[in-house]
Design a protein that fits this description.
This protein is an alpha+beta fold. Helix content is about 45%, strand content about 10%. The protein is built from 13 helices and ten strands. It has helices spanning about 5, 55-70, 115-130, 150-165, 175-180, 185, 190-195, 235-245, 265-280, 285-290, 290-310, 325-340, 340-355; strands at about 15-20, 30-35, 40-45, 90, 100-105, 105-110, 200-205, 215, 220-225, 230-235. Strand 2 (about 30-35) and strand 3 form a beta hairpin. The structure holds adenosine-5'-diphosphate (ADP), 2-acetamido-2-deoxy-1-O-phosphono-alpha-D-glucopyranose and magnesium ion. Adenosine-5'-diphosphate (ADP) binds near residues 211, 212, 214, 226 and 227.
Length: about 350
């Protein structure tokens, strides 16, 4: 179905004059739509391989954005979804694809921080998000991807892919697989604490990459958090950790030269400060385990990239055949670097928490 026709299924202002693919997400297909009245929208096709039930995804996204809209002063601080002429927040096209549309907020996203302040702003955005949703009835949310950040289950899935070796790639990555297996016990620490109730279940974003934060184009302050598909009950530590994994890394997520990949302790400190300033309801136990959150989520993503490589690249968008392997290796290098810096990370967290929380 023609993209303009899909856009016209929503109650938009004007008629589309241009539809251009944009953004750097790995999951959905994203288009920016400009209409003849000058209005700009984001139109997205929801990835059905990743999200098995797009209607539930849109139910979560709809209720979370409605909740946030009542709590922000500036309308640009929460996404605004456009309904269809059938009063739904999604459109099902004649090929069975689900689409959704929301206002383009005049801002921009970064794939890497250009200054400490950029990263600090993203920490405030995710910290505020965590804080604003602390009163949200978590049980009303669907688990749109079951066991999304259950590291124990991620290892189970990796084992399945190793056993199947569907793409015949296992022999060439045995040393990488060994690296992941050696760290399984440590990687499952947080899931165990979640299961024993020592860590509280919260409404979390679950995909807190820097490029999921929108910055104001004039002031460069953070406006809102994007990409709400994975908002589910989860651990605050993973939200913190994924931001560190992506934004405090010294190289892109898919850097082929792993010698360039490490974690920048200064950026770790910058983010910790912003996150703790905004997410004031964290428990002492959560604060103490923030460094572990960064390590676990990095290791977990390495297992996910490796699984996808072994499966033959079914889940993540890839630009070339070895892309998932390159990503997995970059994440493994980063996880190892974090492991070697645990003492310093713990010291930074203790110092920042003392200053911010007293
Ligand atoms: P994905 O699941 O594919 O990551 P996102 O919702 O994160 O989908 O959108 C993909 C990318 O599109 C984002 O990382 C961001 O760069 C860009 N983007 C999405 N919405 C906006 C917006 N309102 N304004 C500017 N950029 C946006
Ligand atoms: C995916 O959608 P995007 O590109 O923001 C993935 C995350 C990964 C990330 C790695 C639903 O995020 O879990 O951490 O890629 N999202 C989903 O870049 O699996
Ligand atoms: Mg995204």
């Amino acid at each position: 179905m023609h993209i303009e026709k899909i856009a016209c299924s929503f109650r938009i202002d004007g008629t589309p004059v241009s539809c251009k693919e944009f953004g750097s997400g790995h999951i959905n297909y994203t288009v920016k739509v400009l209409t003849d009245t000058g209005k700009e929208y984001v139109l997205q096709r929801i990835n059905k391989y990743v999200f098995k039930d797009p209607v539930k995804v849109m139910s979560n996204v709809g209720s979370v954005t409605a909740f946030l809209r009542n709590r922000v002063d500036d309308s640009r601080m929460a996404l605004h979804f456009i309904s269809t002429f059938d009063d739904l927040y999604y459109f099902l096209d004649d090929e069975g694809e689900y689409w959704r549309m929301y206002d383009f907020i005049g801002g921009f996203c970064l794939d890497a921080p250009e200054s400490d302040e950029d990263f600090y702003q993203s920490a405030l955005a995710f910290g505020r998000f965590q804080h604003m949703l602390s009163e949200f009835p978590a049980h009303t949310l669907y688990e749109t991807i079951p066991e999304f950040h259950n590291t124990i289950d991620r290892y189970r899935q990796l084992r399945e892919s190793i056993a199947a070796d569907a793409a015949g790639r296992l022999a060439s990555v045995q040393a990488d697989v060994d690296f992941l297996m050696e760290r399984e016990e440590l990687g499952c620490t947080l899931q165990r604490l979640r299961e024993s109730g020592e860590l509280p279940l919260r409404v979390t974003h679950n995909d807190t990459k820097l490029n999921n934060v929108l910055l104001d184009k004039d002031t460069r302050t953070s406006l809102c958090v994007l990409d709400l598909d994975t908002v589910m009950p989860g651990l605050s530590l993973y939200d913190f950790g994924d931001s560190i994994r992506f934004g405090a890394a010294t190289a892109p997520e898919d850097e082929p030269d792993t010698s360039k990949m490490s974690m920048d302790l200064h950026l770790f400190e910058v983010y910790t400060k912003g996150f703790l300033e905004a997410a004031t309801s964290l428990t002492d136990k959560e604060v103490e385990l923030l460094p572990m959150g960064a390590f676990v989520i990095t290791l977990e993503l390495a297992t996910r990239f490796m699984k996808d490589y072994l499966d033959g690249d079914l889940y993540f968008k890839t630009a070339y055949p070895e892309h998932n392997l390159v990503r997995a290796r970059a994440q493994m290098k980063l996880a190892a670097d974090m492991q070697s810096k645990f003492d310093e990370m713990n010291r930074i967290v203790a110092e920042v928490a003392q200053r911010v929380r007293g």
